[in-house]
Amino acid sequence: MTDDVLIALGSNVGDRAAFLANARCAVATLPGTRMLAASAVEETAPFGSGPQGPYLNQMLLVATSLHPLALLRALQGIERRLGRVRSRRWGARTIDLDIVRFGSVSLRTRELVLPHPGLRDRAFWQREMAALGALAQAS
């Protein structure tokens, strides 16, 4: 059994487009995971504190048989391989991979909250979801 999952990608350090492309490829090769669609890449103002450059953002729709926490660990592994260093919340980063929605799963653990608690605060996520045709599934 697979679930349809929305994954948000963001980068605002270095070759942002290359980080997004590398992340897309890495997500598509995760075990039990198949890429269904990708939104267009969008440049947005930074979300958070401190001076930092604009982000490139994109959302992926994937089907996966991975458990939500297993997917989270896999995404964090991709982030590490692409040079992500977690030093400051909402700070600049090479790549950020967030699970926005995981089918109809509601989950609240120390590691993961689903749906993503920032979903309503990020208009660009709403636009990207709509572009994927996933907005109806996410409401």
Number of helices: 4
CATH homologous superfamily (4th level) name: 7,8-Dihydro-6-hydroxymethylpterin-pyrophosphokinase HPPK
Helical content class: 25-40%
Largest sheet properties: 5 strands, antiparallel
**Which class best fits the helix and strand makeup?**
alpha+beta
Number of domains: 1
State the CATH class.
Answer: Alpha Beta
Your description of this structure?
The protein is built from four helices and seven strands. The mean pLDDT is 88. It has 139 residues and is of the alpha+beta class. The chain has a single domain, classed as Alpha-Beta Plaits, CATH 3.30.70. β6 (107-108) and β7 (113-114) form a beta hairpin. The strands form two sheets. Strands 1, 2, 3, 4 and 5 form a five-stranded antiparallel beta sheet that branches. The protein has a two-stranded antiparallel sheet with strand order 6-7.
